[in-house]
Amino acid sequence: MPRFAARRAAPIALLLLGTLGGCVPAPSFTRDAMLAADRTPEAYARSTAALMWPAATRAFQITPAGDLYNGAWIVRLAPHDAGSGEVAGPPRAIAFEDRWRPVARWMRRDGAITWSFEAFAWPADGDTNLYVSLLARADNETASPQRARLEAAFAAPDTGVAFVAWDADSAVAPAWAARASSRTAAGYAPNAGRAEGASVVTFDWALPPHGGREQRLVLSAYPRPARALVAFARVPHARRAAAARAFWDREATRGARFELGDPDVEHALAAARVTLLACRERRGGRWFPIGGPFQYRDVWLRDGARAIQALALLGYTDESRQLAAGIASLQWPWGAYASQRGQPDGTGQALWAFEQALLRPGSADSLGVYVDRAAAAWRWCEATRRTMAAIDPAHGPLMPYAEPRDNELVRAPLVGTDAWTIAGYRAAARLAAAAGRDALADSIEASRRAYAGEFARALRATGAADVPAAWRGTARDWGNIAALYPCRAGDGLAAGSADSSDWARRSAALARRLLAGGDGLATYGGADSLHGYIGADLGDWALGAEDRVAAGLALDALLHWRTASGGWAELFSRTTRDYGRNLPPHPSSAAAVIALVRNAIVDDDGRELVLTSGARDAWWRGATVRRAPTRWGTVDVTFRRTGSTAEWTWTPVPVATRLRLPAGAEIAAAVPPLTAVAADEVRAPPGAGRATVTLRAAAPQAAGR
Amino acid sequence: MTTKRERRRGRERGAAGSAARRAARSRRAWLVPAIAGVIVLGTWLAVAVPRRPGRAPAPADPAASLDPQSALVRGVELDRAGDATRSIPYFRRAAETGSGWLVHWDYAAALNNASIQVRTWHGITLPASRSSIERGELVRHALDEVAEAERQLPDIRVRARMRVKRGLTLELWGFPIEALTAYHDALAMDPDCESAKKAEAKVLAELRGER
Question: Which residues of B127-148 are buried (b: 16+ CB within 10 A; e: fewer)?
Fold first, then answer.
């Protein structure tokens, strides 16, 4: 919205507030709502939540202690019984509503008094700042009067903090404001005595038996004139909270809708949407995906490409394309893409992200600039590979070494670099074809097929049992897992060839090795460490390998390993349930969950549309996906099992559609034009939009697939 | 909204004014919902719709009033003190208004240093720049300034050493093939350039997996 409109709207808003002065909204939170929040499942040992907003450049973490921290200062909340002096214990869970809607609630108890907190983020007009509206309430749980005290203090980060903001400044001393003025403040404490300019505010309350009191605080991620905070606070907390809910409800229901009859999955998808939409920053007119709201507030193509894909899959087409345009600007003069030092896989990731964002569905008139950029990148990769083949004939035409200073922990030629580059070639060929540049598309595709063959030969030469992380020496698994998904590096191999069989065998061996713990997620480094998004990647690979048991276990694990605020950690300990300083929410894990659920129902990455390849039993009671963007247009899909019949309806597409039966079932009868692909899969011809298959119980060995 | 004066004037017009009154009623009929609509819309705009962030005003250039020599001196001071990021406006001022290859070379060095500058705050070390977007821009700009310095430099042997520096930067960012090309170029300029020989041998060994 243009800024002048906002300025003009303000007096009108005040007019309405005057008109509706007597219309007090319902309390923002009730006791039942607080208790529900306190009971929300929390998978990790320490509960946290992120108060973030799209384009804001700082976020507040609600810490396990129940404080708030923005990377520059801590807002310590010390609620206590003024009689005993005991500070209330930390919250059991810091929960978002329905485990996704970013209005956070948490409770703290100190015996006679129960403390309830509700907080949410809201953008600051015309700024990259954000505000937090925080409501604290004390309830006397006894039949006798109690004295409660709430202390809210700004404090410098201590040695235990997991991150600091890049622009944090020691010279800034955050302070409270008690009235509107031009003096800068980091918080506003209405009705507080001696708050003006102080670093601590205290509220002392005499609570009658079973009575309560509440206090609102406004926090700012950056110091701002006190009058701005006071202006924000003129809208009551409950009304702001309602507006925040309305905003996120709209955001979460934009794009593709998943009506699966499975609230856990639907809420997980909504939480993932919130994380991805909020983890975006701007530079001038460009948008960029960031690696997280806290310690990863930076740009990695490794993570950004996944965010772009996930937003495209969910129909946030504009956002996805804006982010693609952002990363397109990171091209180096010679054609390569690299966001971070020593990460040459960025080229493949960028091209893949362009395709993901721009071809769902394609629009030839907007592709030209991306095809040009992709062509330049492809030429650079080809020249690099030729040079490598000349320098080191034994290694062949593969990409040079990398030193990512990231997951792989080595300086070595990495399998993941080539896997991503191959994926980038496929994307570039598709982009060129969609733009009508057939000769270029054919050239890129030919080079991709040759590259895939060279990749397969190099794999055999390693002597490894599966897909190793590095071509030479030892590296930690990471890009080699991406080779299975999202890169699908074996797709360029001729079906039925020895290379193709070898790739399938190696992929399965890698998945077995990493999933050996039986947790559904991949172990990473040590056997006790579980990794979120690479576990989801293996789930996606399992869908393609027709192993829906493994895919289902991955999704089960991802649904379990969430914070009460719906966020996923990247890496954590199975036994201690701790994520250390690698704080959730992690956008790549959120993106991977979206890809896994979406691919389980609608997969458009190959030559055919694939439906219900990993649909869970609960979804077969009747599920609908609306407005799912695919490479062949936006589709609606409905599927249901009724007794011994499975039915699908979907928006017809110009390619064949493969339909996977419910788990444990096989085809008893399928009426033409459906044809059987496997015992549990049929194919519908291009243009079809409805299918019915009569089912029978599968043989025991097949039922487990 | 109609006022008392408007209503009285309507009565005074009598029957002849009935059509006008109907028109007035008709206007009033849509006026009330229109006002209500404006209020609701205004409130929605003011309360429910989050604002798109604006752009913060650009900070003032601290070097704008300095002559090229003073700007260069100040830039060198800051860079030597380990604050390459703060030195950049001064080098930019010197490069834009001054002359000679050295100022471009110094500017390039400051840009490159800024791209890898870190700071420690409360026990956590983090880049001094905001993100990799800014770091990439710094390095690309540094490479441009190296190229400009080379263009202005008459001594080919010094140019060869500059080309080696360019190669080392490219290696650091993960472009060993481009670095190798830079070392070859340096050796073409000055076949006796020891730093080019050494850098070329090193990167070739790494590309071959020999080290």
Answer: bbbbbbbbbbbbbbbbbebbeb
The string of pLDDT tens digits covering residues A192-214 is 888 889 999 999 999 999 999 99
Give ipTM to 2 decimals: 0.89
Q: What mean pLDDT is predicted for residues A471-496?
A: 93
User: Is B45 in contact with A15 (Cβ distance < 8 A)?
Assistant: no
pTM, rounded to two decimals: 0.90
Residue A417: how many other CB atoms lie within 10 Å: 28
pLDDT in tens, A513-568: 999 888 899 998 888 999 999 999 999 999 999 999 999 999 999 999 999 999 99
Using the Cβ of A581 and the Cβ atoms of chain B, whether some distance falls under 8 Å is answered with no
Tell me whether residues A15 and B39 touch, CB distance under 8 A. yes
B19 CB-side CA count, 13 A: 1
- Interface check for B46 against chain A (CB to CB < 8 A): the answer is yes
Q: How far is A241 from chain B (nearest CA, A)?
A: 10
Pick the residue from chain B with its C-alpha nearest to A125: B51
42-61 in A: which are within 8 Å (CB) of B?
53, 55-56
CA–CA separation, A134 vs A51, rounded Å?
Answer: 11
Task: Collect all residues of chain B within an 8 Å Cβ-Cβ radius of residue A400.
Answer: 176-177, 207
User: What DSSP string describes A166-177?
Assistant: TT--TT----EE
Which residues on neighbouring strands pair with residue A123, listed in sequence order?
A: A130
Average pLDDT over residues B82-91: 95
Q: Are A117 and A109 in contact (CB under 8 A)?
A: no
Q: How far is residue A3's CA from residue A227's CA, in Å, rounded to a whole number?
A: 19
Instruction: Specify the 3-state DSSP secondary structure of B65.
Output: coil
Bridge partners of A682, per DSSP, are A659, A676
Task: Inform me whether the C-beta atom of residue B34 falls under 8 Å from chain A C-beta atoms.
Answer: no
Q: Is the pLDDT of residue B25 over 50?
A: no
Q: How far is CA A355 from the centre of its chain?
A: 19
CA-CA distance, A103 to A118, in Å (whole number)? 7
Cβ–Cβ gap B47/A239 under 8 Å: yes
- Report how many helices (DSSP H) and strands (DSSP E) chain B contains, helices first: 9, 2
Q: What are the start and end residues of each CATH 2.60.40 domain in chain A?
A: 611-702
Residue A167 near chain B (CB below 8 Å): yes
Query: B204–A9: do the CB atoms touch at under 8 Å?
Result: no
- Residue A124 contacts B, CB cutoff 8 Å: yes
Residue A86, C-beta contacts closer than 8 angstroms, at least 6 positions apart: A80, A110, A111
Name the helix (H) or strand (E) containing A64: none
B42 touches chain A (CB under 8 A): yes
For residue B17, pLDDT over 90 is answered with no
CATH class entry, domain A611-702: mainly beta
Taking alpha carbons only, the member of A65, A58, A60 closest to residue A50 is A60
**A403 close contact with B: CB closer than 8 A:** yes
How far does B118 lie from chain A, in Å, by closest CA?
10
| Gyration radius (Cα) of chain B, Å | 33
Q: Do A13 and B42 touch (CB under 8 A)?
A: yes
Is B39 within 8 Å of A12 when comparing Cβ atoms? yes
- Which amino acid is located at A46 in the chain? R
- Nearest-Cα distance to chain A for B32, in Å, is 14
Helix, strand, or coil here: A9?
A: helix
* CA distances to A16, A19, A20 from A23, in Å: 11, 9, 5
How many other C-beta atoms are found inside a 10 Å radius of the C-beta of residue B205? Answer: 11
CA distances from B205 to A392, A410, A491, B176, B200 (A): 10, 16, 33, 11, 9
CB half-sphere exposure, A143, CA atoms < 13 A: 0
In chain B, residues 72-111 whose CB comes closer than 8 Å to chain A: none
The amino acid occupying position B158 is V
Residue B56, pLDDT > 80, answer: no
